[in-house]
Amino acid sequence: MTKLSSNWSRLQKQINPKSIKSKKKSILKTDKDEVKKEVVEKTGEEPVNMSVIQAALWSKERDIQISDLEKPNVSINTNSSKKRQPGKYLAIDCEFVGVGPEGKESALARVSIVNFYGYTIYDEFVKPRETVTDWRTWVSGITPKHMNQAISFKEAQNETARLLKDKILVGHAVHHDLEALFLSHPKSMIRDTTQFKLFRSISNGKTPGLKKLTKHFLKIDIQDGQHSSVEDARATMLLFRLHRKDFEKGIKKFDKSHK
Q: Is Hydrolase one of the keywords (predicted)?
């Protein structure tokens, strides 16, 4: 099992009110006993320990409102087979290590793909094809030990290509991830959060960082320390779903203007 980033663990703890100091106010604060009781009564299941990002993605069928982030939906059925399938939309994110002189060049070291509901469809460490000169652990979260369970680049490339075929691909600067895998994807089937006009508006038209977007639009902190490509993929999917209708309108306008 992949070790979660420190920030990912912190987000999980926010769902558990006992881990939050009583004097600290938070929109995520809930009463653990009441939530657990309600979940058991409604679903007959014990509540799962989800981050607010996971809970928001999992609990809503299609569109998400910002108010959905204030308190996770307590009637979450994690046994839903439908929500565990790849589906129509997939979000991808990758982690990289440094190769070459002083580790300045980047090499793929992890690929993570989640579905529309944030469920992890694919998450594998990848053996770089060149000698690693900088593991960048402080940001990538990757260490030499992870290579003991890593797959080959070719395996990662083939499986990613198979999963993405005929899917709408959601990503943040997704061309970097595709280039790292030496893959391409139809432009009409890409939803890139760096290209969405509303998101670019908070960076004066420049490319906004995922951390900045998540903080501004979701009021959630990510990438606090080591990154997690699963966490980042989920955050990207959540941003997309928050404005999914406007994303799709923009794509339709683009398609019409290029016919």
A: yes
The reply to whether 59 and 136 lie within a common domain is no
Q: What is the pLDDT of residues 143-174, one digit of tens each?
A: 999 999 999 999 999 999 999 999 999 999 99
Question: d(Cα 220, Cα 253) in Å, to the nearest integer?
Answer: 31
Domain with residue 157: its CATH number is: 3.30.420.10
Opening angle at CA 148, ends 142 and 154, nearest 5: 85
Alpha helices per DSSP H over the chain: 6-15, 32-43, 52-59, 137-140, 153-164, 174-180, 197-200, 210-213, 229-242, 244-257
Q: For residue 12, give its domain range.
A: 6-84
pTM over 0.85: no
Q: Domain boundary at 84, 104, 134, which? A: 84
Burial of 100 (0-12, 13-18, 19+ CB in 10 A): middle
In the chain, helix, strand, coil percent, each to 5? 45, 15, 40
